[in-house]
Amino acid sequence: MLSRYAVPVFLLLAIAIGCKFSSNDKESYAYIGGEIVNPKNTSVAIYDADGELLDSIMLDNNNRFNYKIPEVQAGLYTIAHGGEYQMLIVEPNDSIMFRLNTYDFDESLVFTGEGAKKNNYLIKTYLYIDDEAKKLVKNAKMEPEEFDAFVENRRQKQLNEFYKFLENNNESDFFKTIIESYINYSALADKEIYPFAYFGNNKLIHVKDLPESFYSYRDTINYNAAHLSSFFAYNRFLFSHIDNLALNAYYKSNAYHSKFNRHSMDYNKSKLDLIDSIIENEIIKNRLLKYKARDYISHNHTQAEAAEMLDYYLQKSTNQKDKEYMMELVSNLELLRQGNPLPDLALVNYDQTEHNLNSIITKPTIIYFWSSHSKSQYRNSHYKVKQLKEKFPDMDFISIYINDNDDKYWKDVIRNYNFPTQKEYKFKNSKKALKTLAVNYLNKAIIVDENSNILHPNANIFHSKFDKTLEELTQKSISLTK
């Protein structure tokens, strides 16, 4: 019965992404409201379809809020609370109410009211795709033909389930486009990521040997889908797609069977070239340019290399705010070079006592970071540090919570997971501190000696070679002090 919906992915993309959605009713509006269980702070922020802040609404005494969006246009809006974000499909005359528990943000989110069914379906789709994405490394062990068939079958199954839902629910073309795009782009992103997982760095040259039909959809891609510019599935696809396309340039200037180096200057410049040449939409282009340049600059390159990439990026971006951010990032990274003193920042410990960061460092120390919106990361990081403490008893470990939330929520997480409270801190001014220490990734760690001099400004405690790196750095530090 559902066979009539078995439409090729490239045709769906051409139809869905080519559409534009708007409302001619200038009096149209929508309501968004809800209840936050275990709130992290006292407000909820709402962003429009272009990512611009509409308003920040205070929660009432029952942790509820209600907000009217005047002259609403159909789009993907965002609600934000305590460092966590959730996208909503909002259309004229919607009255969307939700309830969520911050301890289980995505899984607890349930919508009611006009516009609820489509958003509940969006959440259902997101959770399924997110779960499948976590299996990608395992699934990527399949041979190319097998993986291609697996991804396509999974995609078609999701589409068939969606079309069955539509048979019993009268929803808008905009909603249909969003869900189709989510399903299709998530599948295509897996295919773009596949060669990196399957071949690995030593054999990535063989991406050229993939079946001819593996990337047959590429000729139909619309790189300028404005209504998807802030959509995770679309951006995940574009990010991995650009990485994949840039491989062609990489192997033009590197030996045929050389080990792939994702941090090479030429490879990363070619990514910026591709973004600049194939994307016209300013929002999409500038976002990709910013994050691809930041990925390179944030790695452990020399200052000259960071400056070279910054100059290359500045020639292409047209977003002045992004340019200022990147220039500040490079300046801050210069202060974080090996051998430099660690910037001194104000911290607050579990007992609400203020300290300066450098004042609590008395021996070689690893400083690591965590956020409440990444449960797996903060559980894994504390577990990993517990292991490292046993292996490196002469090292100290400082845990810093990076969210700017109420202290109650921070302490609740520590209590609920039985984290040791002695070395748990949060920044007094998170926004300033994160910029100063260039904390763009949660897995970043900073290693310093007993005098607060930087040994490594951008380590990763989960890296397979972290233990060896730590041993080498501490031995080097010891020899320098003798």
From TrEMBL:
InterPro entries: Thioredoxin-like_fold (IPR012336), Thioredoxin-like_sf (IPR036249), Thioredoxin_domain (IPR013766)
Organism per entry: Winogradskyella aurantia
Pfam families, A to Z: Thioredoxin_8 (PF13905)
Protein name stated in the entry: Thioredoxin domain-containing protein
Thioredoxin domain mapped to chain residues: 336-482
